[in-house]
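User: Quick sanity check before I run a bigger batch. Here is a single chain. Can you write out its predicted 3D structure?
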Amino acid sequence: MATLVSSIRKETVERAEAHSPFLRGAIAAFPDISACFVEQGSQAAVDRSLAIAGDSTAERLRRRRHALALATALADLSGEQPLEWVTATLSEFADAAMDEALRSAMLERLPDKEPRGLAILALGKLGSRELNYSSDVDLILLFDPATLPRRLRDEPGEAAVRYGRRFIELMQQRDANGYVARVDLRLRPSPEVTPIALPADAAISYYESSALPWERAAFIRARAAAGDLELGRSFLTEIRPFIWRRALDFGAIQEIRDISLRIRDHYAQGQAFGAGFDLKRGRGGIREAEFFTQVQQLVHGGREPQLRAPATLDALAALAEAGRLEAEVAGAIAAAYRALRTAEHRVQMIDDRQEHRLPADPAALEAVARLNGSQTVEVFLAGLAPHVEAVGQQFDGLVSEREERLSNDPDILRAELAAIGFGEPDEASRRISEWRSGRARSLRSPPALAAFESMLPTLMRAVAAGPDPIRALNRFGDIIEKLSSGVNLYRLLGARPRLAELLALILAHAEPLAEQLGRRPTLLDGLIDESSFAPPPDASALAERFLDVTKGEPFDLALDRLRRMVGERRFALGVQLLAAHRDPIVIAEGYSDLAEATIAALAELVGREFAATYGIVPGGELVVLGLGRLGGRALTHASDLDLIYLFDAPQGAQSNGSKSLPATDYYNRLASRIGAALGTPTAAGPLYDVDTRLRPQGAQGMLAVSLAAFEEYQRREAWTWEHMALCRARPLTGSDEARTRVRHLICSILDSANDAAKIRADAAAMRDEMARHKPPAGPLDIKLGEGGLVDLEFAVHTLQLTTHVGQDPRLEEALAALVEQGLIDDGADPDLRLLSRMLVVLRLVGSKGMEPAEQSRQLVATLCGFDDWLSLLAAVDEARQRNAARWAAVKGVNNAE
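Assistant: Done. Predicted structure follows.
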């Protein structure tokens, strides 16, 4: 193995000598570095490079940089170290060299003063520790007038500029030993008129008030790299709100798009892949890979700090981990970025020039390919081509490039709308004219109106393709009227045509989602990429994610953040259902898991806050029990949450906080606060309607009940209907041990029911009472109507209680066990699934009577798996007839006796 490694290293040195004039000269100048590489490896060669001495700061840094360029090139060319190691090594040297050069510049002028008060911010690839093999360093120099050392006659600004000029000279002046780094200060505010070093306070004012959108993207990779690090970090902390905004700003994305298109135009000769291709600025090149990543960060990073990684590869991994970028897309961009950066390094290693183009000259291009280790130019280019195309396609699709506008002339507008597909162009034209009048607050500013006009063709095409365009426009009008500022929404819709199509679908079919959008238009933010339609995580993983995101925040802020995240996920689940991305039953499970995760996370957050005052009850624990559709993992968009709060604590236990409470009082107050956190409306909106009337003694009983009291009540006092409700009970919080104990207790209680005739009679009487006091909302009420879901549920629960078979809160599981024992026919499960699908869909699409609008009937049929509405109705009628017969058979056993 050692022989093979040594052979590879020797071949690398030979290849570098043969094909790179710069590396040939470096090997001649530093033979000990290449020998060290061959004998001991890349890290040893780097360490030796950084130990090289010199008579002055400038000489020492230049010699070290020259030797380091050789060591890192050999590590890179041999494949011994990955791209990330190479760029990090170059960046670490640049940091150290800048710090030493600045210190030397300041001490030359004031040798008895400790250098401070002047910070060097690194941006670009040095900021993200991804420095090129031969690259400028993009810097901003900031000073603090109060702490900067200076001579008495010098103004602070003059002194800072002198230090800056000498620093630049030390860094980039060339001699026989080369140079340290080329310095580029053009990323500072207004570089054409401002001095090279700026007061930190003035720079803060600029970024807070006058900065351009592209500067936000530039500062994603900013860090304090040298000089007064405390000053630099303090500055970056101050301007963080400028970089990372909570609201999505598609204006910044448009700016990035425009910059990239201008770059494509300016460097048109380097756009086509092949000889002469610009690896940095070409279509599908390095810059577009970086811009693509930064756009995703700007969109989501304001609300998700974990996405703020400066390095491109780290950012892609974080975006994929957070579900904000498809893992396949992130992987493709990352692979392309590595390949393109590696190729760029090969080009720069030839002559140590900041060159980004593949050579147009055939001989020069062959030298690059040979240096890379490729057999031919064709092989070299073939390895790059798929990566270039992958980046180009992703960046092309990032934003719409259409610049259409609908006419302001009424006659032309009506003709355009008719051509788009509007059957009633007069009415559509009238609505657009009303919006353009500026009466709505969200359309009064010129930027908002411009963004609105830009997105209008996209939205109108999507609306015209729907079943009821005018209805959709009316609902969109409601959103426009309620918005205080619409510029971001309009930019978002203009930038993402697919999102406009989803909005049109919502407006035409789903009034609950449209109403949510009217209250909170930022809900659309969560749908900007396909990761929004990924399968939702399970309840446990989602609860952990909620707690992780809110970690360290004050309680009120954490609560609001959690409410926003839950609202976004509920909305996204509704859109997934509407867009046929998931089976309605899977969506119901997603709603249920989301509610369970919310309860678990809130119980933890509220519990911590409560414990700060009241402590904990040693040996005590709260278990939240979910019942009904929550317990059965079958929630709909409109479902409330049926909960029972149980606690277990030693006899006579007290909490150990500064305000001690008996266990019963403690858990009742804690339960009340959890319920308030779940149901109290706030600026971020309420989470759920909570129903706790299924607890012992109903509304008259205590909110939280001890496990012993719960068992006593259920065994001695509970009505049959309470045991039927318990059939779908499921512990949602608590330790694994506590959940298991509660589940076993519930099964024991249900298995103790032994008067089958009474159970059937009670169940039949209760169903009749329900029919009288809660009649069906209409003929299509598949929940409460005859043969609907309630009849099937009553049949299942009655069988569970009378036969002690299938004690599982999920009806599907219970039915499987009952079918296996021959207690119910095997058609019950398909009928349950059909009606459940329809219920989930109609809660989103139907009216209060569960009757969908005529224009939505085909959508309902499609989502339920049928070709047309009449076929669906026929299947539902047959299922209801069978359910009615099942319920009659189950309750009729008692009559036969």
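The first strand starts at residue 118 and ends at 123.

User: Great, the batch can go ahead then.
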